[in-house]
Amino acid sequence: MANLEEVLVGYKKYIEIKATEHFKRFCAREKDNLDSCIAEAVYFNLLRTGRYDISIAEDVSKGGADYLCKVGDREFLAEVTTLDSDAVERRSGWKNEIPITGEVFAFDTISVNLCRKAIKKVPQLSGISMPRLLVIGSRHVGASALMGCLPAELLLTGDQKIGIDLSSCKSVNVTDLENSVFFHKEREEGEDLLIDRQCISAILLMGIHESSCTCVGLLHPQPLYEFSPSLLPKIPFARLKKWPPAKEAFEIEWIISHPDSYSWYYQSIELTDKELKNL
Q1: Whole-prediction pTM
Q2: What's the structural domain count of the chain?
Q3: Domain range for residue 256?
Q4: Does residue 106 register a pLDDT over 60?
């Protein structure tokens, strides 16, 4: 296994050899945006050590998505970004520090932070003829909880509220789709659901910790290019059971039964014999 510092150092050594211009920009960004650089290194580590063919896709002069990922004859692009830990703390009310043992406290969702980040990344994931994965990471101490299975569902449907069914006097979960990342509804009653951000095929939420990361995903119900969860089979993905939803009832299903965030322990990155021969 490897720790976070070793992951970052290993990634820098790799791109210094394989992507020199990217390495220079990476080192410059590292001084001002360390968390973003760490997220890229962690995602690369996740796929690289998982025996995926992953390479730098971003054009240093034009920008674009960060990585081209290949699995057999299938491929997809990935753009990696992070949430600012201070912003996560303010939104959630969860201090970015290890809580005292046995302490119980409440915290709010960060759906609005996640949704805004997705909106910001649309230009980099547009105009590409293949599935596109947006990876959003966080180094906040509570990232695994703030970006786990329930937060993934809420990002899909929008934050939920408790309503009352007057015909049965039973409580139900309702949503006005506020902070739903993939669709919305106009304020006028009776309007159809409108699709948003079809350029993002799927989103991966990644909690970044010292020796491991946790991952959970959600699928766009109607993307321009479909992302198959079989591309990342160990990671649970949430999706709408039916699209469009019947009677606006949002039923969510998980690709993996009994879903829980997938935990990945970092490993050292080494150049393969084939890569060394091609230097």
Answers
A1: 0.91
A2: 1
A3: 4-277
A4: yes
